[in-house]
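We emphasize that the prediction below concerns an isolated chain of 130 residues; any contacts that depend on oligomerization or on bound cofactors are therefore not represented. The input was used exactly as deposited, without trimming of termini.
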Amino acid sequence: MSFWELVVIAIVALLVLGPERLPGAIRSVSGFVRSVKQFGQQMQAELNDELRVQELHDKLKQAEEKGLLNLTTEEMQAMTELRQAAADVTNPYPAISKPAESQTLPAEPAASPSPISPDPVVADDKNHKP
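Result of the prediction step, given as a token string:
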């Protein structure tokens, strides 16, 4: 859009909505545009991921046709990436190393909690005043 088209749209919006509601309308429109852009970016990222998966799948097929012998550099990289992806899927959360102090076990087990005693206010319902 050119500058003059935006000016005409702004003047029409000012006349239709008035000066009180125009800022709210601008915020609503900008929020909608922002959400559409985010959706587009997410879709583009997902499509790129799917295309990469398809490319790796094709490289794997080529490597299997060769019997996994005499592979090109691209095929070797694809195999390495697929192995890493498989390792990530089987262990998605890496082990968190704890400080040495927290890895030691206590000398005696923790005391068991005391049995739950009834609340005197709830148990003595006769004397309870609303």
